[in-house]
Specification:
Helix content is 39%, strand content 25%. The strands form two sheets. Strands 3-2-4-8-9 form a five-stranded antiparallel sheet. Strands 1-5-7-6 form a four-stranded antiparallel sheet. The chain starts with a helix and ends with a helix. It has one domain (4-187): tRNA wybutosine-synthesizing-like (SSo0622-like fold, 2-Layer Sandwich). The protein has 189 residues and is an alpha+beta fold. The radius of gyration is 18 Å and the shape is elongated.
Length: 189
């Protein structure tokens, strides 16, 4: 039989299984606030990130060639692209700027819907209810994202002017994600 209190206690003491092995700096305050509430606990979170990754069907070691949860500069991305192009002799590398994400287990359907509506009505537009029995899981996802191939068979596919435009947009998107995190933090009483 599912016991919310026991599940919350176990979830909050278990080892972080993410590749990063820690919470993102920009979302930790929100996670702590949610976890301090009797009716919720977080199961997964990301404040938004920029990555270079191999175009693979399945996750496997070495998939991520570069990952940051902070803004990037042109010189930083250019350096990482050059490193990635020397590592991937065959195949493609994808540039991604991914949105903030938060998965939360709720005590019951009412608390689940309260959190879902607060997030959905304040910019977390790709949010959804994952489970409505026992665990009452909700996944909150923002909309800011970019994804395109950037390297194919060692060759960088985009020029510097394009990279400068993408960096500006990706950094703007991360700022937008972080504002939504701050707004949701303020809405949770």
């Amino acid at each position: 039989m599912y016991n919310f209190n026991n599940s919350k206690k176990f979830a909050l003491i278990k080892k972080d299984k993410s590749n990063k092995q820690s919470w993102d700096r920009k979302i930790i305050k929100l996670c702590n606030k949610i976890n301090s509430k009797d009716d919720y606990f977080t199961t997964s979170s990301c404040s938004g990130r920029i990555v270079l990754l191999k175009d693979e069907k399945k996750k496997k070691p070495g998939l991520f060639l570069f990952r940051t949860h902070e803004k990037i500069t042109f010189s930083q991305l250019k350096k990482e692209l050059q490193k990635a192009s020397s590592k991937v002799k065959r195949g493609m590398v994808i540039f991604k700027q991914e949105p903030c994400l938060l998965s939360v287990s709720s005590r019951n359907k009412e608390s689940q819907w309260q959190l879902f509506n607060k997030a959905r009505n304040n910019g977390w537009k790709k949010s959804g209810i994952l489970s409505i029995d026992r665990k009452f899981l909700v996944e909150l996802i923002s909309t800011e994202n970019i994804s395109f191939p950037v390297i194919k068979d060692e060759n960088i596919l985009v020029n510097d002017n394009f990279l400068k435009i993408i960096i500006k947009k990706a950094n703007y998107n991360l700022d937008s994600c972080w504002k939504k995190i701050d707004i949701l933090f303020c809405l949770i009483k």
